[in-house]
Write a structure and sequence with these properties.
The protein is built from 8 helices and 8 strands. With about 300 residues, the chain is an alpha/beta fold. Strands 3-2-1-4-5-6-7-8 form an 8-stranded mixed beta sheet, with helices on both faces. One of its GO terms (molecular function) is oxidoreductase activity.
Length: about 300
């Protein structure tokens, strides 16, 4: 049984009828409940999942509980080619996208490389949503209005508060720790949001990020000592449904309409890591991310 949490009453999600929303990493955890909350509010939801079987399970659950059947798009966020192809399929298949929730995340216990040769945690948590978002910005911009802008929401973490960005070793080739890599990737999420918000005007799109709380999802199922410790902690932390509340707030709350470049904790703007307020660092990460993404896509095209 979970320990009771001192939480205020759950906020109802305002109607999203007529709006189309994308949620990445939507087959389980926070992503699943974010998608379910949007579907219950009337949005047409596009689930972006890696596994066909788990994605179909999520579709059935959401349709059953909301009466609103979502669509499913497959993408492996450890492959930038897969990410780009999925974003293009969505852009080509949907006239309007009003909400994008970058929820997918990785927490790699050992240093591993993706098919593109990039460190997995940094690639999945930052480079993939960086590419996915930028590919979809024209569609988002064509869907937003001045009175009700399209929204980009990125799930970061307060782990970012304890991080730094090592521009000389973004791939952690010299020294790797599971928590260090995760924290750096989450700080990258915040820096990306800040720089994206700076670049978006005059497009009718906002970009914000958030800390969902400490949530008992499958991301901590690492095996070994860390996995055992996570199993003991899970009953004491937020459920995935509770963890989705801040994502739903930032994606839909009318009172934050037009606000951009903010980091939300418990449905309130909070001050991020001071590094995230460094405009030079945000621009540098953007430039480096563009270089890494373009190099991976060019390599893919060359080998095709």
């Amino acid at each position: 049984m979970r320990t009771p949490l001192n939480r205020k009453e759950k906020r109802p999600v305002p109607s999203q009828a007529g709006r189309t929303a994308i949620v990445t990493g939507a087959s389980s955890g926070i992503g699943l409940y974010t998608a379910l909350g949007l579907a219950k509010a009337g949005a047409k939801v596009i689930l972006v999942c890696r596994s066909q079987a788990r994605g179909e399970d999520a579709k059935r659950l959401i349709a059953r509980q909301s009466g609103n059947e979502p669509d499913l798009v497959l993408a492996d966020f450890a492959s930038l080619k897969s990410v780009h192809n999925a974003a293009k399929r969505i852009a080509d298949g949907y006239n309007e996208i009003h909400i994008l929730v970058n929820n997918v995340g990785a927490f790699a216990p050992i240093r591993e490389l993706t098919v593109d040769g990039y460190e997995t945690t940094f690639a999945v948590n930052h480079l993939a949503p960086f590419l996915f978002t930028n590919t979809l910005i024209p569609t988002l911009a064509g869907s937003g209005e001045e009175r009700r802008k399209a929204r980009i929401v990125t799930v970061a973490s307060n782990a970012s508060n304890r991080a730094s960005i090592d521009f000389g070793d973004l791939m952690a080739s010299r020294r790797y720790s599971v928590f260090g890599a995760y924290a750096q990737s989450k700080l990258a999420n915040v820096l990306f949001t800040v720089e994206l918000a700076r670049r978006l005007p005059p497009k009718p799109v906002t970009a914000n990020c958030l800390h969902p709380g400490v949530v008992g999802t499958g991301i901590g199922n690492l095996g070994g000592v860390m996995g055992a410790a996570w199993s003991l902690l899970k009953p004491l932390v937020l459920t995935p449904e509770q963890g989705a509340e801040n994502s739903l707030y930032v994606a839909t709350a009318p009172e934050i309409e037009g606000k951009s470049g903010l980091y939300f904790v418990k449905e309130r703007p909070a001050r991020p890591n001071p590094i995230a307020e460094d405009a030079h660092a945000a621009r540098r990460l953007w430039t480096e991310s563009e270089r890494l993404v373009e190099a991976a896509l060019e390599k893919t095209h060359a080998s095709a």
